[in-house]
Amino acid sequence: MPWSASRITTVLVVPTVEPSLAFWEQRLGFTKVTEVPHGDALGFVILVKDATELMLQSEPSVREDLGPDARGVTPGTSAVLYVEVSDLDAAGEGLGDYPVAIPRRTTFYGMDEIGVREPGGHLIVLAQKKA
Question: CB–CB of 16/40 below 8 Å?
């Protein structure tokens, strides 16, 4: 394949971010490096520890972000894999006629993304930093 994946980060969908954030920081020693508010609460955070990165996103934030494409995303049981790729066009070509769950889009945080559900039903978001 003419593209590479530089990292896969798990996004845990949670009812609200704050209780999970406290657990990951206070009990497991992760450090919050990014936060994005959603209304009066946190909608999304990125945590790191050593070479490990984890994202937490609230269910309301996911539903607003994905709209109808959020079907099957359930807090506490859903994980989304966020895959940073070197060439989103090439990765998209590799999908061929595979059904797209999230049409290609550019996010406010500067990533081009496209989402698919792998055969087991998990949402996979392929992303490349916008040039």
Answer: no
